[in-house]
Amino acid sequence: MRVNCGLLALLVLGSLRYGLASDYYSSITGLEQLLHTEHILMSDLSSQLDVAKNVLLHLERELSAIKVEHALAAKGLENYLTNPVNIYRLMKRLHTDWQQLDSRVQQMSRQLRFNITQHDGLSFPSQEDVDGAALALVRLQSTYKLDVAQVAAGILNGIKYGTDMSWQDCFVLGQQLFEMEDYNNTKVWLRESMERLRRHQPRPTTPEPALLNSMEMVAQSLFRMGDFDTAYELSQRVLELDPSRIRNWHLGDKAANVVHDEGDDGAHQRHAAGYRLSQEFNHYEKVCRGEVSPSAAQQRLLRCRYTRGRHAYRVLAPFKLEEHNHDPLVVSYHDMLRPQQIDELREMAVPHMQRSTVNPLPGGQRMKSAFRVSKNAWLPYNTHPMMGRMLRDVGDATGLDMTYCEQLQVANYGVGGHYEPHWDFFRDTRHYPAAEGNRIATAIFYLSDVEQGGATAFPFLNFGVRPQLGNILFWYNLHRSSDKDYRTKHAGCPVLKGSKWIANIWIHEATQTFARPCDVFRDNEVSVGYDIIK
Predict the structure, then answer these.
(1) Which long-range contacts (CB under 8 A, 24 or more apart) does 65-68 make?
(2) Which of 27, 55, 160, 457 is most enclosed, with most CB atoms within 10 A?
(3) In a domain, 240, yes or no
(4) What are the ranges of the TPR repeats (predicted)?
(5) pLDDT at 28
(6) Average pLDDT estimate for 412-437
(7) What single DSSP character describes residue 94?
(8) Distance between CA 142 and CA 205 in Å, rounded?
(9) pLDDT value for 13
């Protein structure tokens, strides 16, 4: 990498050429002026070279750090890409850091041909992607009670998975959270950024002016919000990095001048935000962390056993059944799919994957939501004979009639991906055809193991089921009387480390009269009251 000194020299010579002529040789005074002129030019050129060297040194350090990340990824791509810290930093690098590197190189020399816009076919994350990665980190931090310093160090639940976040990474994350008005998490990430900056050795080079401007803006807004300690510490770090800057407390206050543009999904987002502050949501997070469990008396009644279902063939090859709960019934069937079948199913789904959506109102437009962060694909059962066999196996194991089932939904939850507590049955009859009835039962095929997190949690039943490759998780959503069983509210806990793949089959109640007949009396009283958020 060469610095374009030739251009600078031509400019210098041009300025001398068009300067006033003088007989400098006629006196020593004139020669002293020339020597002084050359000294100024030498100092200027030396200064320019020092700047170029510093830029090159900084670029080399940045490039070396990125090479370290790719070396780690080469050792295990899936392991690397299922680390939430790695994902956030990758998003940040491609969305922000590479733009800054490109700008530095372009400014340093026109002879350098590096330009990230000259490459076709490359993928770059959008701002929405970067914000999503930031929210995933915060979601994991909140759900699993992770220490911010440990997350920044690449440590998840005591296990070191990757390299540390830099102080700049932590600051940019804090700034993102500030822009998203998550002020509590803004403070902890900014403090972690400042702590990492304080410990940084050797002393960091002066950051880009844009970063310093952002630090000043956030500091001043925090000051107006009343967080004087964080604001003061942040402003002091700005002055340490660039002593020539003078604190200016006249910039606008974002917190005091926030314009709330809710858009079409404002009511849904408000409801979700309020729910996350409820005791019920707090209990759900405890289930995800494994802090609650059924009573000893309930667990003593649970068994692992063989069952033949309704098919005579299963006398010779019975299903392996694990009981999780009796009322409502929640069970697992082990080893229902082989790894090769799972690989084929995932390959068929990948080309059709789209961001999962929610439909809060009957007839309303489906929309993306932080309530549900995953991608899914809907596959007809005639796509491949294996899908028909999956449908048949669920029917054989449960005894249910599989005539009315929704298409197979294959879903993938990446790191931080989740689905907040919800019911699978429809509360409004306009959501399903009357001839098919409501969703009587759910069968989830687990198409992957998950290293940490990702359990299917049942908050009202006080347990969660960890994904296990090839297993089916099955439960009834309705009472025998066809009333909704509100105790079956469940959730996909955030994936802390790994990638969660599932395939959902939703079975409807039509034609189940003989497979699951109703009792003489309605049996829904036991679940009344579970539909109220506390």
Answers:
(1) 65/163, 65/166, 66/93, 68/163
(2) 457
(3) yes
(4) 212-245
(5) 42
(6) 91
(7) I
(8) 33
(9) 38
Beta-sheet strands, E only, within 362-471:
372-373, 375-379, 408-413, 418-422, 439-446, 452-453, 456-458, 463-465
Q: What's the domain count of the chain?
A: 3
Nearest-CA neighbor of 519 among 464, 481, 478, 473? 481
Supply 326's token pair.
């009796």
Residue 255: pLDDT band (50, 70, 90) is very low
Side chain identity at residue 337, one-letter code: L
Same domain, 171 and 43: no
403, two tokens: 């005539």
The answer to whether the beta carbons of residues 477 and 484 sit under 8 Å apart is: yes
Residues in contact with 403: Cβ distance below 8 Å, sequence separation at least 6, in sequence order: 510, 511
Q: How confident is the model at residue 371 (pLDDT cuts 50, 70, 90)?
A: confident
Co-location of 237 and 204 in the same domain: yes
Q: How far apart are CA 52 and CA 105, in angstroms?
A: 10
81 & 139 share domain: no
Same domain, 179 and 304: no
Of the three residues 60, 80, 111, the one that is the final residue of a domain is 111
Same domain for 180 and 220, yes or no, is yes
Q: Is 384 exposed, middle or buried (0-12, 13-18, 19+ CB in 10 A)?
A: middle
Q: Is the Cβ–Cβ distance between 501 and 447 less than 8 Å?
A: yes
Mean pLDDT, residues 108-133 taken together: 71
Range of the domain at 74: 28-111
Q: What percent of the chain has pLDDT over 90?
A: 47
Domain end: 48, 82, 111, which one? Answer: 111
Q: What pLDDT, on the 0 to 100 scale, is given for residue 117?
A: 67
Provide mean pLDDT across the span 198-207.
69
Distance CA 148, CA 191 (A): 10
Burial state string for 223-258 with b = 16 or more CB within 10 A and e = fewer than 16: bbbebeebbebbbebbeebeeeeeeeeeeeebbeee
**Residue 369 confidence (pLDDT) above 80:** no
Torsion of CA 428, 458, 403, 446, to 10 degrees: 130
Task: Tell me if 233 sits within 8 A of 223, measured CB to CB.
Answer: no
Are 140 and 244 in a shared domain?
yes
Residue 45 — very low, low, confident or very high, per pLDDT cuts 50/70/90?
Answer: confident
Are 173 and 216 a contacting pair, CB within 8 Å?
Answer: no
Identify the CATH number of the domain in which residue 509 sits.
Answer: 2.60.120.620
Q: Is 394 inside a domain boundary?
A: yes
Judgement on whether residues 305 and 340 belong to the same structural domain of the protein? yes
Task: Please report whether residue 352 resides in a domain.
Answer: yes
Residue 34 has pLDDT above 70, yes or no: no
pLDDT for the residue numbered 223 = 79
Residue 26 has pLDDT above 50, yes or no: no
Q: What is the mean pLDDT of the chain?
A: 83
Q: Please determine, for residue 131, whether its predicted confidence score (pLDDT) is greater than 50.
A: yes
Angle at CA of residue 87, ends 84 and 89, nearest 5°? 110
